[in-house]
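Bug #77: duplicate submission created two jobs. Keeping one. Sequence:
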Amino acid sequence: NDLQEQGLVRRVRGSVSAEKTMLFESSYIYRSRQKVQEKKRLARAVVAHLSPGNAIMWDDSSTTYHLCDYIEEVTPVTVITNSLPVMERLHDVAEVDLIALGGKYHRGYRGFFGMACERAIRGYHVDVALLSATTIQGISLYTQDEQVVRTKLAMMEVARRKLLLVDDSKFHFTALMHVAELTAFDIVLIGGQVEGEHLRRLEDAGINYQLV
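Kept job's structure:
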């Protein structure tokens, strides 16, 4: 019950599961242990798309979190985030001006969401938004949770450039709620081994992507 209350697992017909489904996202802790090397490579590659002085809107995903390891290569920067793990990592890093977005805390996602968070996001205009999501179907981005969708859309609205970070597992899941078309992003960074048919679909749609 403690794990369920923390959002780490959910009940499935008398048992428990940490895996994501079309309707339920897996917990942040579970996701943070998956595809770690791919996520680190994606975060490392993002540095080339950032510059000192940038204001960066940073989502709560376990993928974008790994940029914490490399952010000092492009300081000084301003980081605006709803991610508690990012706040914990960057709060005392020199030359990172950290702005924490408030809202209702979701223990499973380890992030802040809701109306207060969305209003706070729309109070800024930033150089870059760094996002990830649950799944890519065709050239569309999906996730399972409406409050997460609203937060990501708000971040995209206030950003001059939008960067998406995804590993190859994102092409093999389904999720309920549409977030955006991949054409809305200035670049899509992709880690791992992605099947050719998926890449051809991106190319046919004119999506700017980079394999990492």
